[in-house]
Amino acid sequence: MAKWRNVRPLRVLDFDCENRPLSYLGGDFTTPELTVIAWKFPREDLQVMYQPEHTLSEMLSGFVEAYDSADMVTGHNILKHDLRLINAMLLEHGQPPLRPKLVSDTYRDLKRRSPGFASQASLAEMLGVRAPKVGMTTPGWRKANRLLPEGVERAVNRGVGDVRQHILLRKELLKRGWLRPPRIWYP
After folding, report:
1. For residue 40, how many other CB atoms are within 10 A of its CB?
2. Residue 22: what pLDDT?
């Protein structure tokens, strides 16, 4: 038993991204641009970087530094959205891709359920998580996408709120046995 005393807990990074449409690829499909990224390690202050306060390069550098120091990353739908978005932005800026990482995605790793029960806001409400989801209306998104100060403020509040809510949601899902084990994500 003595040899287990020196084992440290995983350093888990919880994060969320917000983005805006940038260009059309055809039809209604648009490419995104990262506008807000918020992250938090346990027992550390929440960090947030956003445009136009920070350049995209500064945002990417700040997040990659945190990502590289984490043993595991977690968020809601990060496998299909956030990690891919960050890698796309890194590629566009001539930076290397994110490294493989242990990931716990509370959307993709949620055990089987009927459709309609997997949004972060729905799960949080069903499970009694007492951290609000910051909603965005169409006019709010339009202001955020135009990088107008009041829109950016709402997008920042949404990213920060998502991280805070997600930390409590993941804890509750783990307690109830609703998450599959983390897995290695390969970019």
Report:
1. 21
2. 82
E strand or H helix at 28: none
The domain 10-185 having CATH identifier 3.30.420.10: the answer here is yes
* Three-state DSSP string of 42-102: CCCCCEEEECCCCCHHHHHHHHHHHHHHCCEEEECCHHHHHHHHHHHHHHHCCCCCCCCEE
Listed as own residue / partner, the contacts of 133-136 with beta carbons closer than 8 Å and 24 or more positions apart are: 133/161, 133/162, 133/165, 134/158, 134/160, 134/161, 134/162
pLDDT of residue 9: 85
Res 155: pLDDT: 95
Phi-psi category of residue 86: left, alpha or beta, with phi > 0 → left and psi -120 to 50 → alpha: alpha
pLDDT at 156 over 60: yes
Which tokens hold the place of 162? 């998502």
Question: How much is the pTM?
Answer: 0.90
pLDDT value of position 26: 76
**How would you list the strands of the sheet with 29-40, edge to edge?**
47-50, 29-40, 12-26, 72-75, 101-105, 183-185
Q: Where are the domains of the chain?
A: 10-185
